[in-house]
Amino acid sequence: xxxxxxxxxxxxxxxxxxxxxxxxxxxxxxxxxxxxxxxxxxxxxxxxxxxxxxxxxxxxxxxxxxxxxxxxxxxxxxxxxxxxxxxxxxxxxxxxxxxxxxxxxxxxxxxxxxxxxxxxxxxxxxxxx
Length: 129
Known about the structure:
By secondary structure, the protein is mainly α. The chain has one domain (3-112). The protein is 71% helix and 0% strand. It has six helices and no strands. The two termini are 19 Å apart. The model has no long low-confidence stretch (mean pLDDT 88).
């Protein structure tokens, strides 16, 4: 795996986790009377939205460089980190059922890593040949 792909993978996970965290923090700390539309103008909400837009674009780029069977299991750690950030820093209650669901999603994504990696054309030849 190329270092650029590993760096991009890290950026995908970090932008997802920090984007969700900033969005959650901003919405929880928005003025009570602001309402949903005015809450979108809170600085941390805007930061969260920006980070999640960046996450989407970075993930699209990553999917162009690496197999889905690589991207899914590696980025699935973001689900666990999102739950941890919510529980620890936002003081959200994460029930045992939600932890179980989170871990099942990660386990399912990890199963995709068992498939062979073969980025290329549909007939199996590497692209560019």
